[in-house]
Structure formats: structure tokens, C-alpha cells
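Thread title: Can someone regenerate the structure for this chain?

I was given the following input by a collaborator and told the matching C-alpha cells would be attached. They weren't. Posting the sequence so someone can regenerate them.
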Amino acid sequence: MRIFLFALTALFSGCGSYGLDATDTGAMASQLGIDPLGEIDFGAHDLGAPKSARTDVVMFVDGEQPLAIIDVFLEGGSSDIFSLSDELPLPLLLQPGVDFPVSLRFSPDTSGTFRGELTVMIDDGTDDGSYINRPIVGEGCTDSDC
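Best answer:
Regenerated them for you:
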């Protein structure tokens, strides 16, 4: 009985490098698709605009097997200028044919070009998972420069 309780506790406590055991899908039979493909470009955004620029990045399964998305985060030199939706429902086992949209915002505070990176951690069957990166760029400008 003790062994069973220990195993049950280990299963639900997120044991493993990143808690991958709870959503481990084994070897990766599918790939993660991200739209837009390549760089996510916000273009020019007026510093005086009442709202930040917003775009949806849509993730989907490219294949016939579900894929576990463990984490989605921003990093890079200007990543504080970019922001993600609050409280993403992660980890998530994404099924084929289902889209997972993530709202990304750009709020420049000065003029210039800003760069960051959207990083998605997926369960690829290894202990450490796999990372998919998409560059992000946006330009802050004043009304006369836009």
C-alpha cells in the first residue's frame, strides 16, 4: 500500500525535470505549427496610441498525434516591451485540428526598433523537452514618424 501511495504522490506532484511526466506523450510523432511562420512583425506603432498593438499567434498540431505544450514565454533584449496573454492554460495537451491562439502585445515606450523572442516549450519525449523560438520585432514611433 505504501508503494502505491508513493507512486501516486510522485505522479501528481510533477516529478521530473520540468514536470513532463504528467503530460508525457512519448516520442514526438507530430510537430508544432505556429502561425505566423517566421518572424512576428508588429510594424510601426505610435507611442501616443491609446492601446498597445495586438496580434494573435496561433499554435496547432502538424500531424495526427496530440502534442503537449508545457510553457510559452518571452525572452530577449526587449522582451519587456512585448507581453503575452495572462494565465495561459498550461501545460496543455493540444489535439490535432484544434487551434491554440495566444495574444501577443507590443507596447513601446520610446522610439526605435525592439526585438524579442517568443519561446514555446513542448514535450518531445525527452526529459528536458524541446524549445521552438520565433523572433518578434516592432517599431515605436511618434505620430510624425509613423
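Residues 1-23 have pLDDT under 50 and may be disordered.
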